[in-house]
Design goal:
- The longest helix is centred in the N-terminal third of the chain and has 34 residues.
- The N terminus is likely disordered.
- A hairpin with a 2-residue loop joins strand 1 and strand 2.
- The protein contains 17 helices and 2 strands.
- With 441 residues, it is an all-alpha fold.
Length: 441
């Protein structure tokens, strides 16, 4: 059997999406496990150790720059920068060659995402306008793609790839909105000097891109400097991750023809440089050829691809589970009824559960009826409605915005109850409706 059958054009296009979805599904499982551990730990006899751990301070001094933050702060303002960097890379890739690269492709997910951000915020504001919880309006606007893809994975191959792509594109537009909301509305006092330094660093990064710098280490060092500048500027540090991502080169050093010709010649040279079965370690000529092949592979891969492929597993299997472990633990106890009936919690639950489905479905329907967009193949309106409900799983980004919105621990715990409840309801109901839609032939 020949395993080297050439892929069709559509298979080549969708393979990166399939790989992404597979990693997100696996990461979603870890995310669920980390969340359960956090909830059990925070409501166990060892609850004090849970809260004490994340409030332990860690200091790092870099010359005149002193960084003294709690472990929770290091995770939310440091580790999560990597998450936002990968989000930025995904956004850039989709804008260049993916589902947001043309107006026709982007119309439906953009319309859906806009509705899915506007309606949840409005519902939240209705319940909290003028109250102590008014700053939390951005919380129900978010969608957690890892959890959503994890639920889709439970339904296997019955879920059309076109529906998965729609949800993925919607979530990416949603991420763009969340980043803008964080940068504009959840910013503390501005340090103009630090912001100026950040601006200079961004200009340097853009120049590096334009003159052909492709070394990942150089971009990493410059990125750390950019993060420090944003950390001290007052604009939330995670915005640095997205800004850095947009400066990463997305072009190859060589085209595919040069890569193919060069690689084929190197393979021939490798074959003629020794006998079959020779150990490369004992053949310096073959070892040199292998190095050249590796160098050739680096030239064909863009820095954007290399960063994304290298960091995505770390984000899915480490960064997001650690974030969930540090932030999902809320002590419920006897105050559950009070927390879940608070206007903050109600606004979040209804925003995620109702706002998302109403906004996404209505805006999608309007975009199609106005002939701005078209419904993807194999996707019915019931499937889009189910996807709209699943988009109400806010979790990671919702928790992140909640941390920015509420400095008061009591209000933050109430918000967490709302996020967990709204996300759980959206996940269960969305799963049931999507399964029903998939069972209909």
């Amino acid at each position: 059997m020949n395993t080297n059958t050439a892929k069709t054009p559509i298979e080549r296009i969708t393979q990166p999406i399939q790989e992404f979805l597979h990693k997100e599904a696996s990461g979603g499982i870890l995310l669920i496990i980390a969340t359960l551990i956090a909830l059990i730990w925070a409501n166990s006899p060892f609850a004090e150790s849970y809260h004490h751990l994340w409030h332990t301070y860690l200091s790092i001094n870099l010359g005149n720059i002193g960084l003294n933050y709690s472990l929770n702060h290091w995770i939310n303002d440091g580790l999560m920068v990597i998450f936002f960097f990968v989000v930025g890379l995904e956004i850039k890739r989709e804008l260049l060659v993916g589902e947001l690269s043309t107006a026709k492709k982007a119309a439906l997910p953009i319309a859906a995402a806009l509705g899915g951000m506007i309606f949840p915020a409005l519902i939240y504001i209705i319940f909290n306008l003028g109250s102590e919880g008014s700053t939390g309006w951005g919380i129900p606007m978010a969608t957690d793609i890892a959890f959503v893809v994890g639920i889709l994975a439970l339904l296997g191959n019955r879920v059309p790839l076109s529906l998965k792509i729609f949800i993925l594109a919607l979530a990416i537009v949603d991420d763009i909105g969340a980043v803008l909301v964080i940068a504009i509305f959840y910013t503390s006092e501005i340090s103009l000097i630090s912001l100026a330094i950040a601006a200079v660093l961004l200009v340097v990064l853009v120049i590096m891109n334009r003159i052909g710098v492709r070394n990942l280490l150089i971009y990493t060092v410059a990125g750390i400097a950019l993060w420090l500048a944003f950390l001290k500027s007052g604009v939330h540090a995670t915005v640095a991750g997205v800004m850095l991502a947009f400066t990463i080169p997305a072009s190859s050093r060589i085209n595919t023809k040069k890569f193919t010709d060069k690689t084929n010649q190197l393979v021939k040279d490798f074959d003629s440089a020794g006998d079959h079965g020779d150990n490369v370690l004992t053949n310096s000529e073959r070892l040199s050829i292998v190095d050249e092949i590796e160098n050739n592979c680096e030239k064909i891969l863009t820095p954007l691809q290399r960063f994304e492929h290298g960091l995505h597993p770390w984000v899915s299997f480490f960064v997001m589970p650690v974030f969930a472990l540090a932030n999902a633990g809320v002590t419920i106890g006897s105050g559950l009824t009070t927390a879940i009936t608070h206007s903050i919690s109600i606004g979040i639950i209804l925003g995620l559960l109702l706002g998302k489905q109403i906004g996404i479905f209505l805006f999608s329907y309007a975009a199609v009826k106005l002939k701005i967009a078209s419904v993807p193949e194999e996707v019915s309106w019931k499937k889009i409605y189910a996807a709209a409900i699943l988009a109400g799983i806010g979790f990671t980004m919702s928790l992140f915005i909640a941390n920015l919105a509420f400095g008061n621990p009591e209000l933050l715990d109430i918000a967490k109850v709302g996020i967990l409840s709204g996300s759980l309801l959206s996940g269960i109901i969305g799963f049931i409706i999507l399964k029903s839609a998939l069972n209909k032939k």
